[in-house]
Structures are given as C-alpha cells and as structure tokens.
C-alpha cells in the first residue's frame, strides 16, 4: 500500500483543538497546511501593519476619507480592512481589540466595539464572523454585558484568573483568552517556565484546568453556553500540545510557534534552555532527536488533570471548594471584580503589564495616523 505524506504536528494538533492564527500576515496564513479557525489581533499587530510601507496608500486613503473623524474611528476602519484581507483564508472570525487606554472606561469600550462592528460590516464581514477583544477589568466585563445584549460578540482578554473567567460567563462573552505565559516571558527567558510537561508542570496549568471544569459545571447546571476557552501566549510547541489535556477549545498560536509545528510530524525531544530557539535551528545542534507525539488516553488524562487541579501553585489561598464556591459570586456587581483583580498578585501585575505593553503600540498608531492626517491637510 502506498502511504501518503505524514501529517505535520500542526495538522495532528488541529484534529484535537481549533487553531487560531496569532498574526495578521495574510500570505503566511494562506500558506499553512491547515485553515485556521479565527485570526486574532492586538495593538502591536495592527500597528505593525499600519506602519508597513506596503499599506501606506491604504492608510492614507482611509485617513483622507475620514479626515474629520476621531482617530479611534480611523483606527477601527483600518483594522477592518486588515480583517477583510484575512477572512478568505480562515473558517471563523476576525478579531479587533479595544484600545488599552479605554480599559477602565465602559462607555468608551462599548463605543469602540460598535465602531469595529460597523466597520467590519462595511467591508462585507457579517457580525457573526467578528469578535471584539475586551480586557477583563470590571469595566470591561460591564461593557461586554451591554454588547452581548446587542448581539455583538466579545472575547475577554488579559485573563489570568477564575474570577475573571466567571465574570466573562456572567457577561455573556463569546470567548475568553487566558494568557498562558506572563506578558514579559516572550522577551525575558528567566520568566518562562522551561518544563518538559507543561500540562502538569507549568504554574498556569491548575488555573487553566479549573476554568475548564467550572465552565463545564456551569453549562451542565444552567444549560447556558459558556465562553470558548481560547488560550494564547505560547512560547513552545509543548505548551500548545498541553492544551489538548487542559481543555482549551481554541489555541491562538503566533507565527514562530506555527512554523515550529510545521517542521515535521514528530515532537522535538525536550532539552532545557531552548527559549525561543526555532526548531529549524535546533535541528542543527548535537543531541537533537524527534519523538512521536500522541494525546493521552481519556483515563490517563483524567488522572493527570485531577492531580493538577488540586493546588494552584500561584495562590497562597487553600481553596478546596474552588469548583463550587467561586461561581456563587456576582462578579458584575460594582467593585467585585476590581477587588479580586487587585487582591490576586498574578492578575494584578500581569493585567497591568499587558495593558502597558499594548499602550505603547496604541500611542505609536495614534501618532502615525495623526501625522498622516497633518500631512494631508
């Protein structure tokens, strides 16, 4: 019997969990051996595209047509045009993120989300193929609750905790995006948990799996759809593969890790100290070996995940009733989510860091757009 070509590790992974592309590079998305489900966006990606010389004419045209509009509206229209380029190459949704400066202003986030949807619709993209990313602050959850009632799909981003995840459920959000690694781990190797088995050894594993179980319980008890878990912020192939056991519905993967997943049908054998070293480079080093990958069977996964869920290594609180107690709280009530976000050092610090990093690119995009506007005056 003639055998066909072996499937890449990305293709194998996509048979277990939906893969979203964490890039706006259209040609690269089109070249993948799978069709991504969704394509995400963030202020850094959008700014990179705005400042790309190949988009100069388009950006200038939008600014010219909207010369008297607020810069936030211009930004949304430009973002929608990037979405229109990508959507023929995916099966699901395009996403846009409210501006970091709006993260604690409910009205501003609601307005920006409506502006995105209007812009996407003007590009021929139906609302059901869009989603607006909103930070999981108290004000973000309140904005999502308003938008959900209007039929606008939202995703809770900058999510690090169970209270944020339950708030997203209570607000009727379409999805949540847990940051698997902390925001600075992509630029500082000392902050990355370099472990062989991320599903059991990564410090975020317990929180991730607990959210999975809480959402499963809420769906069973209420009969209501729960947010998709769309995990992001991966640095290694092994972290992506761990999501099969940890219960992610979607995984949002950046270009560097997508390239690693396409390098072969096997998994590079674990070697410590390879932070952000591409598999293409690992292949040239002594000691490199491939090993086969297969998802754990159901019984083995249940055993491993039960052990993972027992203790949250990033919390000093012993919370043996985490599965039931946390869901009894109204996280949309005034002051509640803000208190939980502030009281948990992991959420407090990483939320602040993530928004600060994105704010840099918001500022750059605003400056670029305003300079274009001034030049056209």
Plain-language structure description:
Helix 5 crosses helix 6 (106-122) and helix 6 (106-122) packs across helix 7 (138-149). The strands form two sheets. The chain has a seven-stranded parallel β-sheet with strand order 1-7-6-5-4-3-2. Strands 8-9 form a two-stranded antiparallel ribbon. The mean pLDDT is 95. It is built from 17 helices and nine strands. The chain is α/β, with parallel strands linked by helices.
Instruction: Write down the overall geometry.
Output: globular
Tell me the strand percentage band: 5-15%
Q: How is the largest sheet built, in terms of strand order?
A: 1-7-6-5-4-3-2
Q: How far apart are the first and last residues' alpha carbons, in Å?
A: 69 Å
How does the helix and strand content classify structurally? alpha/beta
Count of alpha and pi helical runs: 17
Write the layout of secondary structure elements.
Elements: H1 9-14, E1 18-22, H2 26-31, H3 43-50, H4 56-65, H5 71-86, E2 94-97, H6 106-122, E3 130-135, H7 138-149, E4 154-159, H8 162-170, E5 175-178, H9 198-201, H10 205-222, E6 228-231, H11 237-246, E7 250-254, H12 255-261, E8 267-268, H13 279-282, E9 290-291, H14 298-309, H15 322-325, H16 336-343, H17 345-376
Parallel strand pairs: 1-7, 2-3, 3-4, 4-5, 5-6, 6-7
Antiparallel strand pairs: 8-9
């Amino acid at each position: 019997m003639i055998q066909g070509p072996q499937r890449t590790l990305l293709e194998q992974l996509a048979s277990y969990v939906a893969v979203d592309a964490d890039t706006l590079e259209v040609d690269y998305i089109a070249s993948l051996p799978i069709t991504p489900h969704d394509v995400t966006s963030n202020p850094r990606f959008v700014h990179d595209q705005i400042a790309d010389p190949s988009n100069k004419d388009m950006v200038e045209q939008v600014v010219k047509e909207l010369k008297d509009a607020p810069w936030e509206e211009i930004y949304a229209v430009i973002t929608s045009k990037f979405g229109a380029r990508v959507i023929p190459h995916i099966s699901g949704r395009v996403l846009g993120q409210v501006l970091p400066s709006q993260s604690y202003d409910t009205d501003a986030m609601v307005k920006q989300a409506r502006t995105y949807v209007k812009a996407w619709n003007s590009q021929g993209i139906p609302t059901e193929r869009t989603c607006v990313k909103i930070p999981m602050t108290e004000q973000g959850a309140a904005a999502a609750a308003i938008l959900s009632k209007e039929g606008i799909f939202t995703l809770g981003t900058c999510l690090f905790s169970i209270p944020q995840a339950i708030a997203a459920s209570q607000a009727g959000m379409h999805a949540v995006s847990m940051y698997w690694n902390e925001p600075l781990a992509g630029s500082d190797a000392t902050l990355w948990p370099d472990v062989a088995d991320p599903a059991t050894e990564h410090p975020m594993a317990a929180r991730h799996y607990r959210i999975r179980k809480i959402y499963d319980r809420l769906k069973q008890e209420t009969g209501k759809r729960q947010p998709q878990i769309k995990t992001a912020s991966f640095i290694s192939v092994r972290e992506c593969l761990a999501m099969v056991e940890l219960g992610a519905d979607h995984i949002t993967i950046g270009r560097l890790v997508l390239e690693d997943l396409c390098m072969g049908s096997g998994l590079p054998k674990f070697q410590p100290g390879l932070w952000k070293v591409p598999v293409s480079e690992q292949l040239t080093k002594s000691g490199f070996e491939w090993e086969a990958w297969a998802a754990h069977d159901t019984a083995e996964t249940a055993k491993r995940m039960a052990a993972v869920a027992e203790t949250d290594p990033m919390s000093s609180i012993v919370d043996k009733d985490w599965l039931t107690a946390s869901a009894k709280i109204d996280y949309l009530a005034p002051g509640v989510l803000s208190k939980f976000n502030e009281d948990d050092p992991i959420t407090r610090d990483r939320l602040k860091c993530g928004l600060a990093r994105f704010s840099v690119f918001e500022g750059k995009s605003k400056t670029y757009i305003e300079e274009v506007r001034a030049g056209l005056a």
